[in-house]
Amino acid sequence: MTMLLEARDLTHVYTIRQGLLGRPAPLRALNNVSLSIKRGEILGIVGESGCGKSTLARILLGLEAPTSGTVLLEGRPVGDYPRRERALAVQPVFQDPYGSLNPSMSVEELIALPLHVHGIGSRSERRRRTATMADQVGLPRRALAARPGELSGGQRQRVAIARALVAGPRLVICDEPTSALDVSVQAQILNLLLDLRAEHDVAMLFISHNLSVIEHMADRMMVMYLGRVVETGPTRAIFARPHHPYTTVLRDAVFSPQDDGGVPDLGLRGNFPNAMDVPSGCVFHPRCGFAHQNCSEVEPMLKTHGGDDRACACHYPLTAGP
Ligand SMILES: Nc1ncnc2c1ncn2[C@@H]1O[C@H](COP(=O)(O)OP(=O)(O)OP(=O)(O)O)[C@@H](O)[C@H]1O
Ligand SMILES: [Mg+2]
Questions:
Q1: Of 9, 80, 105, 116, which sits 20 to 30 A from 295 (CA to CA)?
Q2: Over the stretch 145-190, which tens digit does the pLDDT of each residue have?
Q3: Any ligand 1 atom below 6 A from CB of 25
Q4: Would you say the CB of residue 50 lies under 6 angstroms from ligand 1?
Q5: Ligand 1 lined by 151 (C-beta under 6 Å)
Q6: Residues around the ion ligand 2 (C-beta < 5 A)
Q7: Domains and CATH numbers, the chain
Q8: CA angle, 102 as apex, 98 and 105 as ends, to 5°?
């Protein structure tokens, strides 16, 4: 069966110039990242700020070309899709809906925009579909005449979600869609996305720095660290027993009282390393409590353990134990 989305060995290098006269230096934001998403599935991606999540999202959306590697959407390179056709298949939902909603348009016009652009339905059909979509995302009918500036942050995100779904995409890529919202509103939006997935049978790539959000949302998940995938597998299995020491730290941070949506203190040694000066060997070794000598010398590859659809990039995966 063709995967809905498949990315193979994505590497992305930005060229950074430090200072006006500084020499350009490479910043490797993604390093050999591969993933696949089946129809109707939610794949979660989690990792600290700067690990490459948004770079990955932009490349998967076809908004940026990778330095190397391929992205296949329904078996066809995403770069080969005419822009409109791609937009019919994949839609984004970003962290800040305000930035992507034209402030001078009404909510109704904003939600209907994709139908308009793709010439879907007659005028009255478009109005009907827009109203149904607004109902499904929990926007009151009176909100249809409002401008984005008159809405709350949560309502604006509902508009962005309605617009993403109205033309029936097969995949929605959500990059931290609730991080800017109050905690109580976050939960409503997350549950709304789960309801919509069930209703529309749409697949999602769901990005968050918050592992508990990923636990709630994702069927399968991927943990990223410094542009690399360090662990991937079914969400439940990873939560029950993480194999990578970094995943263990992220999971344990979930259980510490930290509900304000901020980045939890992971209690790791050292700081998040500079992406322009990555550690040798395993890039996580300076912060790892289990590092041995060879961890600073040899980079571990992503390897499957036990054939249960899980993989981990660690010389000493935490697979044994009680
Ligand atoms: N346009 C750009 N030009 C240069 N460097 C960039 C650019 N975009 C991202 N980077 C760098 O690439 C790395 C990955 O950034 P990215 O935004 O993908 O991370 P992220 O995981 O989405 O972080 P956050 O959780 O803060 O959103 C970072 O070191 C970042 O500074
Ligand atoms: Mg980001």
A1: 9
A2: 999 999 999 999 999 999 999 999 999 999 999 988 888 899 999 9
A3: no
A4: yes
A5: no
A6: 53-54
A7: 5-259 (3.40.50.300)
A8: 125
